[in-house]
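Budget justification note: compute hours in this period were largely spent on complex prediction jobs such as the one shown. Inputs:
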Amino acid sequence: MSTTSASSWLTPKRIPALVAGILGVVLLIVVFANADQTQAIVLGLGGGALIAAIALSITLNYQGSGVVNFAAGAIAMYGGYVYYGLRVNGQLFLPPIPNPLAPIEGIAHLAGASSFSLPHIPVFITLAHPGQGAAAFGTFVQQPAMPVWAALVISLAVLVLLGLAFHFLIFRPLRRAPVLAKVVASVGLFIVMQAVIVLRFTSSAKSVAPILPSRPVHFPRGVSLPSDQMYLVLIVIVVTIGLWALFRFTRFGLATRAASENEKGALVLGYSPDFLAGVNWVASTVLAGFFGILAAPINQSIDPITITLLIVPALAAALLARFNSFIVTMAAGLGIGMLVSWIQLVSNKSWFPKAGGSALPGLTDALPFVIIIVVLALRGKSLPTRGSIETIKLPFAPRSKGAFPATMVLGLATIALLFVVTPIWRLSIVNSLVGMVICLSLVVLTGYVGQISLMQMALAGIAGFTLSKVADAHHIPFPIGPLLGATAAVVVGLLAGVPALRVRGVNLAVVTFAAAVTIQNLIFANPSWSGLKGASVNSPSIFGFRFGQNDPWTKLTGGGKGLLPNPWFGVFCVIVVMLLALAVVNIRRSRIGRHMLAVRANERAAAAAGVSVSGTKVLAFGVAAFIAGIGGALSGYRFGSVTAGYFGAIPSMIFLAYAYLGGISSVSGAMVGGIIVAGGILTTVFTNWLHISEQYTLLLAGIGLIIMAIQNPKGVAGAIRDGVHMIRRRRDAKGAVSSSGADSVPVEVAV
Amino acid sequence: MGMLTTSGLSVSFGGKRAVDSFDLDVKAGSLVGLIGPNGAGKTTTIDAITGFVPAQGSVLFDGTDISGLSSTMRARTGLGRTWQSSELFDDLTVMENLQVASERVDVRGFLRDLFRPRNDDVSELMVILESLDLADSADVLPTDLSHGQRKLVGVARALAAKPKVLCMDEPAAGLDTEESQTLGGRIRALVDGGLSVLLIDHDMGLVLTICDYLYVLDFGQLIAEGTPAEIRANSKVITAYLGERHGGGSDPTGDDGAPVDGAPVGEVGVGE
Ligand SMILES: Nc1ncnc2c1ncn2[C@@H]1O[C@H](COP(=O)(O)OP(=O)(O)O)[C@@H](O)[C@H]1O
Ligand SMILES: [Mg+2]
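Corresponding output:
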C-alpha cells in the first residue's frame, strides 16, 4: 500500500469511502429527525453485528492467506447448526464420510438381494438425551438436551477443528495458487457446507432457544433495543478492538501483515507464513461460527440459507475496508445492517416502490450490491495495471476437429435413446440436456474469456420468468417466447456485465454473485411474479403439435399412449443442445474465439494487438447470457413453471462447479458437466444403480470443485481427451516415422 | 515532422516521476534507440506512448494527437509494440497469436462465423513467420518454444498488425550474441522497408550499430540524445552506465513482475 503521497489525503482511491461516509451522515441526520426511523435503524444493529462479524472473518482470512472466502457466511451458518444439534438434540452431527461398502451394497441390490445390508458410518454422535418438556403456548416444547455452556464449548472445539481442516486440506495446498483458484475453492467449500447441512437437517428452518438474555434496553427518545442484540454489538466491538490491537501491537499481527505483503517479511519476524495462515484460518472460522451461534437465536430460527447469504453484505463491508482495516470493516457491517433495517421500515411508506400492492421485496439485498458495484467500478481500471495481472490458470481450450459429425452421431443416438428408455432415464436425460446448455454458457464466458460468473442461473431465471410473465401472458407463440426470454437475459446480463468491465478476477466473482442475489430477491421472489408455486409456463407447441414435458404422446410403433415424460420434448432439447454446441465450437474456431482466448491469456497484450478487450467481454457476457437464457426457457418448459429456488445465487455457484468439473474450456466439457448435474444422468446412475442418495450429488460437486481448484486439471473431458491423444500418439509412433505430429497442438477429439 | 512525436511526456507513480517531460521524435523510416539503466523509465515511456499508463503531455502519431485514445485504438491506428517479456497468448498457437493481431471482429462476421466459421487466409502471416524463421512453428504452442523464439513470435505478432511505428521493448534481452545480431539485422531490414522503429535494448553494441538516433534516459530524465557517434562520446552517458550507483537502488521488473533477465549494462563496452 502506498503511503508515500502524504501531500494530499484526498486521493482518488479514497473517494468511494468518502462519498459513502457523506451519504451515511446525511442519511443519519435525516433519519434521526424522526423517532420511529431512529428505532428502525437501531434495530438493525443486531443484523449488522452478524454482517460485521462475517466481514471481519473475511478480512482476517484475506490478511492471513490472501483468500476472499465466499464460504464465510456458510461457516457462520454451519456453526449455528453445530450448536443447534448439540443443544437441542444432544447430538454432534458428522459430515458424510464416504462408505466404501456402499457400492458393494448397491451392486448386491442390483443383483436382486434387496435386503442385503452392510454397516453404515454413523451420522450423529449422541452425547446427551433431550428431556421431556412441558407444554408451553399449546405446543409441545422439548427440553434442551445439553446446557448452553457445554454445547457452546463443544461447538467452538468443532469450529477449531474445521478451521484446521480448511487450512490443511484446502488452502495450504493452494497457498501459491492464483487468487482466483482460491476463490473457486471457497465456492466449493460453500457448496459443501450447504450440502452437508441440508443432508443432516433438511432445508427447513429449525427453531432455537435464546442464548443471550433478551429484554428491552431503553435509550433516550423512546428508542429501545433488545439486550441480546446489544450484547451482540458489544461483543463484535470488543472482537474488533481485539483484532485491531492484535494486528497493531503484537509480533503475530505484524508478521501476518508482513506475510500478506510478501512471504519473507514474516520469516524475518520469526514466523512461518504457513503457521500464520493456519492460525488465521482457525481464528476466522471460530469468529464466523461463534457469531452464527449467537445470532441464530435472535431470529429464533436457523435455516441453511439466510445466514449463508449474508456473505453478500459482508463482502460489501469488507470491500469498503479494502480487506484491510478491521475498524472500517466493523463500522461498514453495522452500517449496512442499520440501512437494511431502515429500508425495511420505509418500505411501508406510500412512496416506496410497490409490486402488486405490497412493498417491492429485495431492495434490502440490492443495497449491498449497489455498494459493491460502485466501489469496484470506481476503483477498477478497464485494463489491469502492469504487474497486477492476476489470472486463473484455465484449462487449454482446444480447437475441435470433427465436431460436426460427432455432434450429429451423439445427437441422433440420444434421440433414439429417448424413445426406448424408461421414464426415469428419459427425465434424467432431459435434465442433463438442460444442464449442458447452462454449462455451455459458462464455457463461453469463463472458459474462453476467463471471466468468472456466479450469476448464470439468475440470468437463466430472467429468461424463464420472461417466458412465463411476458410471453405466455401475451400469448406470444413458441419459438418467439423463449427467444424473447433469452433476449431479456441478454439485457440483464449486459446491465450487470458492463460495470463489470472494470472489475476482474475475484472482484468479478463478488459482483456477479451480488447481482445474482439481487436478481433472485428483487425479481424471482417478487410475490406478484412468482406465487408460492412459482410462475407457470405453458408447454411449447408448433403447428398445433404440443411437445411439452407432460403432454400426452403416441408411441411410434404400435400406437397407444406412451408414458410421460414426453420424449418429443427431449428431442427438442437435443436439437437445441446440438445447435448451441456447434455454435460454441464455431466460436472457438473463428476470429472471435481467438480474440476471447487472447483476452483470457493477457488483457494488456490483447489490447496492444488491437483487440477491443471491453468489446470482447461485452460480447461474451451477451452470448453467455443468451445461452443461459435459452437454458432457463428450457427448464421452464421442463418443470412447467419457474421458481425462485431453482434459479438464483446458490444454483449459479453450483452450476459453476458442474461446468468446472466437466471441463470449463471445451464444449465436450460442457456435455460432461450436463451429465453430472443434479437430477441428470449421473444422479440416476447413483440412485438407481448404486443406491447413493441424490442429495450427495451436490456434496460431490462441491468436493470435486475443491479438488479441481487444488489439482488444476482439465476437467473430466480434458482427462478423456488426454487419454485419447496418448493412445493416438502411440498408434502413430508404431506406424510411419512420426513427423512433426508430436509437437503440433492437440486438437479436441470429440468424445 | 516525425511519425511519432512526444512532447512533455510525463508519468508518475504515487508522486515518483518515472518519466519526466520527455520529448521524443521518431522520423518516418528511421530506427531510434532508447537506452538507459534498469529502472530508467524506458518501458514506462513505451507504456505511455501506447496508452498503457496514464500520462501527461502529448503523443503525436503521424501528425494526429492520440493521447486521448485507448491502447486498443492506438494499436489499430498503426502503433505497434512488443513486450519486455513476450506476453504471448499461451493458449493459442503461434499462427493464432498472429491472427489475433491481424484480424478484426465485427458483429456481422461474428454472426456468420457462428454458423460457418471462415477459413481465414493466413498466407501473409506465413510470410512474416518465414521472414523470422518461424515457419515451422506455426502450429506450435508458444510454451513449447525456446526463449529466443518466443521473443521472435512477439515481434511477429506485432508485425502482423501491419504497424507504421513499432515500439520494441528489449527484443534482444535473453538472446545470445549471435541471435541478437541476427535480430538486429532483421530490425534494420524492416526499417529499410519503410517501418519506423523505437527500440529499447540493453545490448549497447547492438543499439549503437543499428540505430540512426538515440535517446538516453536515467531516473526518468533525458540525459543525452544524438547519433550513435555522439552518444559514444558523451561523458554523461558514460557515467550513467559506469557510475557507482549501479547494481542497487532500482528494482527493475519485467511486465509480468518477474525480474528482468537482461544482460547487466555495466559490462557492455560503451567507449569501444
Ligand atoms: N506500475 C508501477 N507502479 C509503480 N512504479 C512503477 C510501475 N511501473 C514502473 N514503475 C517504476 O518506474 C520506474 C521506471 O521503470 P521502467 O519503466 O520499468 O524502467 P526500465 O524499463 O527503464 O527498466 C522504476 O523505478 C519502476 O519501479
Ligand atoms: Mg523495462
